[in-house]
Amino acid sequence: MNDKQTTVQELKERVKQFRAERGWTDTDQKDVAISICLEAAELLEHFQWVKTEEVKDHSRWRQAVAEEMADVLFLLMELAEQFDIDLAKAFQAKVTKQANKYPLSEFNPSKSKQELRQAYYRIKSKTRTDHPFAEEKEHDS
Ligand SMILES: [Mg+2]
Exposed/middle/buried for 29, CB within 10 Å: 0-12, 13-18, 19+? Predict the structure, then answer.
């Protein structure tokens, strides 16, 4: 099993089979959602108190991080199966939504960090209260 040869549906079926073999068929969806957050927190623990330079050297933590990512994925597949959610469709819809929210005309590598940050916070300010960075002026340097 690897990313190139495995479909999302196969992952869902593998999780379903694993759970059925153990009689874990009546798990509360709320508990699965909570467990996703808890496993995501376990993933974060590997980055807590670690300097960015240390994170870049992933040979030390790669296996442990992969296990936590797999924990999150396992539970996500379980929840998607329980809610009958087509994750590939949901993913594509999200990518389309994000592309509309962050248009290439404003978010592309030709923009400065300042321009990108301002554009980002202009968008955020439409959905949240105004953020001070949205109107920040370019710093002289
Ligand atoms: Mg874990």
Answer: exposed
